[in-house]
UniProtKB/TrEMBL annotation:
Phylogenetic lineage: Bacteria, Pseudomonadati, Bacteroidota, Cytophagia, Cytophagales
EC number(s) from the headed UniProt entry: 2.7.13.3
Coiled coil: none
Chemical reaction(s) catalysed: ATP + protein L-histidine = ADP + protein N-phospho-L-histidine
Signal peptide annotation: none
UniProt xrefs under PANTHER family: PAC DOMAIN-CONTAINING PROTEIN, PHYTOCHROME-LIKE PROTEIN CPH1
InterPro entries, alphabetized: HATPase_C_sf (IPR036890), HATPase_dom (IPR003594), His_kinase_dom (IPR005467), PAC (IPR001610), PAS (IPR000014), PAS-assoc_C (IPR000700), PAS-like_dom_sf (IPR035965), PAS_4 (IPR013656)
Protein name: histidine kinase
Keyword annotations: Kinase, Phosphoprotein, Transferase
Length: 918
């Protein structure tokens, strides 16, 4: 009998050796034990020996003690259950997650505080309402399906939907639903489910922002003019178009997925293994944060190039190997020039002259530069055989490149290393030229730095050619992606190796269709044309096909690429081109019609001020026909515009600025106009100016009328304020005269006594007590000190107590008003609620009022609802702005930046609400 009943919630059998999990079996066992004990009790002891009777008595005592202990354990268990239930209620109500209990009909049966805050209202207004009312209309069907699935399964289901709060604001939320399982005896009860709702708006916004950031990075990465590759481990995982151009590759698959040394020889010219060079460079970049190195590499065509690389490591999250950002630069030409310089002075002179390369030598001690005629010409100077100060170079460096150039020169001098840098120079005429410079620090016989020598070359045509090549690649990619063009490549035997382009969709085909097919066999009608191309001719021919039920004509241009040993054919859907021509013609006619029928005068000029467009409205404004002004200078046609201000405006617009010249008077008629100056761009360059002349005579007249209207409204508001003040003074005076004054006068008469006989002091004290009470009432109405001393909650509660005895039941619902608000907001809320309650008592004939004041998210939401007779809100617009009624309340709310909302119907009560920033 040493069992501890509190050690386990399980039932035990008669000998307490095994737990009994079946409650009915446990009850049956307990009943059997009780019957046996009853039998023992009812047995007579006459035929028992004293020892047996004594043993039976001891056993009954043990059973009695055991029952008493079990009863104590039950009491302790009940107390523990009550405590656990109280903890559960606290955890449920104050949980940071919104919890709902939803019935099978979709009604909200129970919710916690977080749920009411999430839906933007109090719990009392939510219980019994349909949860679907707080689902955005476009998501309600999906919510219905989700709720059906929850009630038809025993597992937890999730859904992300768009919800809306009581005030209509929307937010994204994650819903977790689980059906509530009833006990078997309550299986027929109304089904229920639990919903956990989490606001995921911030997470979705962060995800969207992250996706946008990744998109911008990808766009910058792909469109960069610098060759960039990404290395992870020892494998290229991405590259941009400039990197493909540097390696002569046609697609990323020729680079991505390969080892970093795949496009390099096994050994570098110095005998070092390329694999070791790459691995050591990556390791040093990881240690120092950046590494610059050079190596010999191969293009896809097999051409050897020398590449300068800048390695920058990028740490990855989640324990992934770090990324290495590698910027490539083809320095083959510079290195070859340097090698030629070391080989032979004669060959150097010849190479410098052939490549138009200039030589410069700098003296560090004298801070002067000696340079030849070509070097000076590269910087835009006329030849001067005398040394010049270093400032002569610095004056021509592009401002954005100065710091980088001097940093490279200082690094080369400090490390006695080779200088190789490209930069821009700006000539005196403003033109920008690209220059590549290479040099090395020179030491004297004592090892001291004596100067710096190097070469300069104008590489502007090279940069222009690279830019043109990049532009052409972009154009070709854009053509294949956006125009009905088909690119086909096939081998000398006629087998297709690639077929791509958006034009395949017009033909009803998918990308890379016919790959592996022999064109000579597939299209025998064009066999002669294919053979001509494979023979080396460049031809174009028309082909036709039927696609999507219509005949499509394709113009094909084909040539043979000897370097790649393949034929390339571009096919254009000329059917759509003709349709586009017709559409362009229609758009042109529409533009001309729009120009001619515009209510504004429209004039266009080129950069020289010559008129290129002049519509009918401009002719009506300035009394000159288009035929007389087209091709003429604008300032000759409109000489009154030829002033310093207009000349400055033209210069600003040609620089890319949009300028408005407002309030200009017509020269030939009364009225004014605004002139909008907009730059006209073509291919990114400003080619002229579009000037729109808009008649604003009527607008100015309406603006003047609006100004007068605002002044009248301000006067009416001022009058209403003054009237309100006078009304309040009158009310105070009447209260003092009719209330306090009469009470004091009555007290005076009482003290003097009627007919010369003094009255009892008790009657006088009663009158004085009434006068004091009246004084306090007037003082409380004027300046409620309780509001200043104890805050809005206490003041509103006191106001409710004062009104309740009048027969009007006031129910207050105050949320989050423990902390004080700004004084203007507190007094405004108190006065407005006070005025609305006074109006209800005077006019509404109501018996009950609901006052809601809630503070949420730095705003105070106020709502006053009565069950009175109601009124028509539209009738308020015809009432004057006088008194302390709804007009005064509206003005007070508007002065604090809020907006009053009135919802009332005759016979159905009134709801007046507003919100103010705390």
């Amino acid at each position: 009998m040493n069992r501890d009943p509190a050690a386990s919630p399980e039932w035990y059998n008669d000998d307490f050796s095994q737990p009994v999990t079946d409650v009915h079996a446990a009850l049956a066992s307990l009943r059997s034990r009780a019957e046996r004990r009853q039998y023992l009790v009812t047995q007579g002891v006459d035929n028992k020996t004293p020892e047996e009777a004594q043993r039976m008595f001891q056993e009954l005592q043990v059973h009695q003690i055991e029952l008493e202990m079990q009863y104590e354990e039950l009491l302790l268990a009940q107390t523990e259950v009550n405590n656990v239930r109280a903890q559960y209620v606290d955890l449920y109500d104050f949980a940071p997650v919104a919890y709902f209990t939803i019935t099978g009909e979709g009604l909200i049966q129970q919710l916690n505080l977080c749920a009411s805050q999430l839906l933007g209202t109090v719990r009392q207004r939510l219980v019994g309402r349909r949860f679907a009312l707080f689902i955005a209309p476009e998501s309600r069907f999906e919510f219905g399906q989700f709720l059906t699935r929850v009630f038809n399964t025993t597992s937890t289901l999730s859904a992300e939907l768009v919800l809306q709060r009581e005030d209509g604001t929307r937010f994204y939320a994650q819903l977790e639903g689980l059906k509530v399982e009833h006990a078997p005896e309550n299986a027929a009860a109304n089904p229920q489910c639990r919903l956990a709702v989490i606001d995921t708006t911030a997470r979705r916004e962060s995800t969207a922002a992250l996706a946008a950031s990744e998109s911008r990075f990808r766009r910058l990465f792909n469109d960069s003019h610098d060759a960039v590759v990404l290395l992870q481990g020892h494998t290229f995982i991405d590259c941009n178009n400039a990197a493909l151009d540097l390696l002569g590759a046609q697609c990323k698959t020729q680079v991505v997925g390969q080892n970093s040394w795949a496009h390099a020889p096994v050994l570098q010219p110095d005998g070092r293994r390329t694999v070791e060079l790459f691995q050591q460079s990556v390791a040093e970049a990881m240690q120092t944060g950046s590494k610059r190195c050079e190596a010999y590499m191969y293009k896809v065509t097999g051409e050897e190039i020398r590449v300068e690389a800048v390695l920058t490591p990028i740490e990855e999250e989640g324990g992934k190997p770090p990324l290495v950002h590698i910027l490539w630069r083809d320095v083959t030409s510079e290195r070859l020039a340097a090698e030629q310089l070391r080989e032979s002075q004669a060959r150097l002179s010849l190479a410098l002259e052939a490549s138009e390369t200039g030589i410069f030598t700098g003296n560090i001690d004298l801070d002067r530069i000696e340079w030849d005629e070509r070097a000076q010409a590269i910087f835009g100077y006329e030849y001067n055989p005398n040394p010049v100060p270093v400032e002569a170079l610095d004056q021509r460096f592009h401002p954005d490149d100065k710091a980088r150039i001097w940093e490279a020169i200082r690094a080369a001098i400090a490390g006695q290393s080779q200088l190789a840098v490209d930069y821009r120079v700006v000539w005196a005429d403003g033109s920008v030229h690209y220059v590549t410079a290479a040099g090395r620090a020179v030491a004297d016989a004592n090892g001291q730095m004596a100067g710096f020598t190097g070469v300069l070359r104008d590489v502007t045509p090279l940069y222009a050619a690279e830019g043109e090549l990049h532009y052409k690649n972009l154009v070709m990619a854009s053509v294949l992606d956006n125009l009905p063009v088909v690119l086909t490549r096939f081998q000398p035997d006629g087998v297709v190796t690639e077929r791509a382009g958006s034009g395949l969709g017009v033909l009803g085909l998918e990308g890379n269709s016919l790959v592996g097919t022999n064109l000579l066999e597939r299209f025998p009608q064009y066999q002669s044309e294919f053979k001509k191309v494979l023979a080396g001719e460049t031809i174009n021919f028309m082909a036709s096909a039927t696609a999507n039920g219509r005949e499509v004509f394709v113009r094909n241009y084909a040539f043979f690429d000897e370097a790649q040993r393949q034929a390339i054919m571009l096919g254009f859907d000329v059917t759509e081109v003709e349709q586009n021509k017709k559409q362009l013609q229609a758009e042109k006619e529409f533009t001309e019609s729009l120009l001619e029928n515009s209510v504004d005068g429209i004039v266009a000029i080129d950069r020289d001020g010559i008129i290129t467009a002049w519509n009918k409205q401009a002719a009506r404004y300035f009394l000159q026909e288009p035929a007389d002004v087209l091709g003429q200078p604008l300032f000759d046609v409109l000489p009154h515009l030829n002033c310093d201000e207009e000349q400055q405006i033209v210069g600003r617009v040609l620089a890319g600025e949009q300028v408005l010249l407002a309030g200009q008077a017509f020269e030939h008629r009364a009225g004014h106009y605004d002139a909008y100056h907009v730059p006209l761009r073509q291919e990114g360059e400003i080619t002229g100016i579009l000037i729109m002349f808009r008649d604003v005579t009527e607008r100015d007249r309406l603006a003047e009328e609006a100004t007068q209207l605002r002044l009248r409204q301000q006067q009416e508001v001022l009058s209403a304020i003054l009237t309100t003040q006078e009304t309040e003074r009158k009310r105070i005076a009447e209260a003092l005269h009719n209330g306090l004054g009469q009470l004091l006068y009555a007290a005076k008469l009482s003290l003097e006594g009627r007919a010369g006989t003094p009255s009892s002091p008790r009657a006088s004290l009663k009158l004085l007590h009434e006068a004091i009470r009246t004084t306090r009432t007037i003082s409380f109405e004027l300046t409620p000190g309780i509001l200043e001393d104890f805050g809005l909650r206490t003041a509103l509660e006191e106001l409710s107590k004062r009104i309740t005895p009048t027969g009007l039941s006031v129910n207050l619902h105050l949320v989050n008003l423990e902390q004080r608000l700004r004084p203007p907001v507190e007094i405004a809320v108190y006065r407005i609620v006070q005025e609305l309650l006074n109006n209800i008592m005077k006019h509404a004939k109501a018996t009950e009022v609901e006052v809601h004041v809630a503070r949420e998210k730095k705003r105070v939401e106020v709502s006053v609802e009565d069950n009175g007779c109601g009124f028509e809100p539209d009738a308020l617009t015809t009432l004057p702005l006088a008194g302390m009624g709804l007009s005064g309340v509206r003005n007070r709310v508007a002065l604090l930046g809020g907006k009053l909302s009135i919802n009332s119907r005759l016979g159905r009560g009134t709801i007046i609400s507003f919100a103010l920033d705390e």
